[in-house]
Design brief:
Helix Hairpins, Chitinase A, domain 3, five-stranded mixed β-sheet, two-stranded parallel ribbon, 25% strand
């Protein structure tokens, strides 16, 4: 298994992760334990779909808790006021123009764990993220994606 990568977060995001982790550990675990107990009380576990579903849910919850704990251990806090906007970097927002479609998009560059393409957050390790990193406003970059090659012009960088 590869070594966990650094996770760059703001203090606010770190606080959100800690709160969610506490909720999962103390409330979600209790809820699933209750579901398992209720299903177990129904009798024969070999043909009990509710029991199997609750156990699977428990496994997924424990995996989520583990991933969040690893994320917290590998977190590096970035002060938003110190983020340079001279070039695209971690936690910067970048407005780009797709030269082929003439469509503008705004992305925030984040760690893989926080990536949410629909929410405009792309991983620094994604093809688009890698192509944009360390480039200034006005620079055009090409990105090789499964659908071909995209070309973006960096229009604006902000916090």
């Amino acid at each position: 298994m590869p070594a966990p990568s650094k996770v760059y977060v703001t203090r606010d995001r770190l606080s959100e992760i800690e709160k969610e982790l506490q909720h999962l550990k103390f409330h979600a675990r209790k809820e699933i334990a209750n579901k398992i107990a209720e299903a177990r009380a129904q009798g024969d576990l070999s043909e009990n779909a509710e029991y199997d579903a609750a156990r699977e849910e428990q496994g997924l919850l424990e995996l989520r808790i583990h991933k969040m704990e690893v994320m917290l251990m590998n977190s590096t806090i970035i002060d938003e006021s110190e983020i340079s906007i001279d070039k695209v970097g971690m936690l910067t927002k970048v407005r780009v123009l797709n030269k082929k479609t003439k469509k503008e998009n705004t992305y925030q560059i984040v760690s893989a764990e926080d990536a949410d393409f629909e929410g405009g957050k792309i991983s620094a390790s994604s093809p688009i993220g890698k192509a944009l990193l360390n480039n200034p406003v006005g620079k055009s970059v090409q990105v090789k994606v499964p659908a071909g090659i995209l070309e973006f012009e960096i229009l604006e960088i902000s916090r």
